[in-house]
């Protein structure tokens, strides 16, 4: 049970990540509702969560927090299709959990009523990396528009109380860093997959790390990967930087080969 007051949290998009977050929230004593394009009523029944097939009825359920767990590529469509005029509590805190941050920030500011609070977050872990607890795992957040500090603080406490490293930064700063780290990681992993690399009888530790990277990356959908590119304005530059770096390495190797073997070996 969390030491902070219980919240009524509505989850939009109850796939694997929404379910993953929900289990810890329930454990802490929060009351949950959910809605999703897929019928998760049976799963919700098992977890003690009220499931709404109708989004309008979900919106009317008087949630303190609406947590949007849609994909990057569907985020705008999901939010724009919600009947926000049905909100019983205009000051509801809306939270996203996307791996990009400027995009949801812009959409939330554009679509939501001015009275609604906005917290952009990125839990930098998932069902696999967080299966044994969230201690020391990174949780990034940006208080984009907050009127009700108490509700925002209580929601952030969900993650702080589990031992997460709480990182407050702007959405822009997050996307700059993520383009150099998360996007490049996924790009290398998918490039290795395109090369069909597999374990061999003489693997070095380094190569084992590469095959693990490929396998981990390919568990995520191409929809997620493309979202990291399409909706992070810094990603294109990092992709170009990677291409230039590969070209430079190739040039250095070719130059050394010419020095050793002569130009006719090109």
UniProtKB/TrEMBL annotation:
Keyword Coiled coil: yes
UniProt feature coiled coil, ranges: 232-259
Gene3D superfamilies attached to this UniProt entry: NAD(P)-binding Rossmann-like Domain (3.40.50.720)
Pfam families to which the protein is assigned, alphabetical: PDH_N (PF02153), TYRAAT1_C (PF26213)
Domain Prephenate/arogenate dehydrogenase, residue spans: 7-266
Record GO terms (molecular function): arogenate dehydrogenase (NADP+) activity; NAD+ binding; prephenate dehydrogenase (NAD+) activity; prephenate dehydrogenase (NADP+) activity
Domain of life: Eukaryota
UniProt entry tagged with the keyword Glycoprotein: no
SUPFAM superfamilies recorded: 6-phosphogluconate dehydrogenase C-terminal domain-like, NAD(P)-binding Rossmann-fold domains
Protein name, entry field: Prephenate/arogenate dehydrogenase domain-containing protein
Organism (species): Medicago truncatula (Barrel medic)
